[in-house]
């Protein structure tokens, strides 16, 4: 009787530990997955030549008022705040802004 209780207790402890470990893992992969997914999606949506075009527009239009800020200087999150305003400042059309965005986001600093 005593042994049985001990086993049940140990079993309960183990499953609690395993459960919390798994839950922790699940949430941490989820946060990084959003950025990874986004990059994967852009890579699928834009061809390599479009990416090159995006880079060309970026180099050509984004150092008229200041030094060229490299994509790796900021995270995706930060770039998303910066880009709409700057694309407007650089007077890019929707297509150019999309190309620049795709290139910058896929080359941004890892979180
Ligand atoms: C018409 C001038 C102008 C053009 C063109 C321009 N910028 Fe800017 N940019 C600014 C000014 C002014 C600031 C600083 C003040 C501000 O943040 O608005 C700035 C700041 C920035 C910053 C720094 C933001 C920070 O928080 O440190 C980044 C990054 C940037 N620009 C990227 C770009 C990119 C990418 C492009 C091309 C799509 C671009 N800029 C085109 C005027 C311009």
TrEMBL record:
The keyword Protein biosynthesis does not apply. Gene3D superfamilies: Cytochrome c-like domain (1.10.760.10). This is Cytochrome c domain-containing protein. Residues 1-23 form the signal peptide. It holds the Pfam family DHC. Keywords: Signal. Transmembrane segments: none annotated. The keyword Nucleotide-binding does not apply. One of its GO terms (molecular function) is heme binding.
